[in-house]
Please model this.
Amino acid sequence: MDATNPSSIDLSSYRIPGHDGCYYLPNFLTEDEEEYLIRKIKEYPQQRWKQLANRRLQLWGGELTSKNVLVAQPMPPWVETYPDIIDRLKATGIFTDSPHGKPNHIIMNEYLPGQGIMPHEDGPAYFPVVATISLGSHCVFHYYQYKNDDEGEAGGRSIDPAPVLSILLEPRSVVISEHALYSSHLHAIREIEEDTITAGNAATPPMLTDLGVPIANTDRLTGPVYCRVMSEGGVLKRATRYSLTYRDVAKVAQLKAFMKR
Ligand SMILES: O=C(O)CCC(=O)C(=O)O
Ligand SMILES: [Fe+2]
Model:
């Protein structure tokens, strides 16, 4: 899309065919905006990063309790000023029916090459839509469904290892997940350093070579390198990727003003 400031964005033209609830919008941000955001992410106080086993993150807007309540804190100032991402997301209409009419919580994930995120659901704390912006690198994002059999070995539900949908997220794009893809599916990014693509031809679309699954948004990609690799095949090396995941938490508790931030 054109990263200006439209008052209304028609999401239907960005829907991934055959997958109600997944929209891919390339060029949601400009390169200048991307560079600015990455600088702000890097300037964030070191002690406020959360270090997980295989990933670091920043929580903007507060933290969730185990009871799914957002203990709200002010967003970093640039989040609500420049770039005007929240206004652009509102223009798509995805938050029109959400409790606050706009996102109030953003998880900023950092992935080094080789890092990813295991299949998971984002869960019931959020109004069932999430908008994810990619900065700095591409990745391949997979949606999975549970198997029909009742229980996996650990007593949890087992996951069908074949993704139901795989899309390539270009830097500066946004992907929106809602409906069944939010509420009953899982999503993940594999922990690999590069993505190898087998070229498409008249009969088959471009595929992830090792998994043999098609890249469902191939004809929506705009970056020359991504377009070339889809038509000729090749390897896309991952760099450090930052993802901004915008959500609306229904239940909010305000931190008392005297409490230390
Ligand atoms: O980094 C991404 O694109 C996905 C992150 C994610 O799934 C999450 O934060 O819940
Ligand atoms: Fe997630």
Summary: The CA atoms of residues 23 and 197 lie 22 Å apart. Residues 107, 109, 117, 122, 132, 141, 187, 189, 243, 245 surround 2-oxoglutaric acid (ligand 1) (CB under 6 Å). The two ends are 37 Å apart (CA to CA).
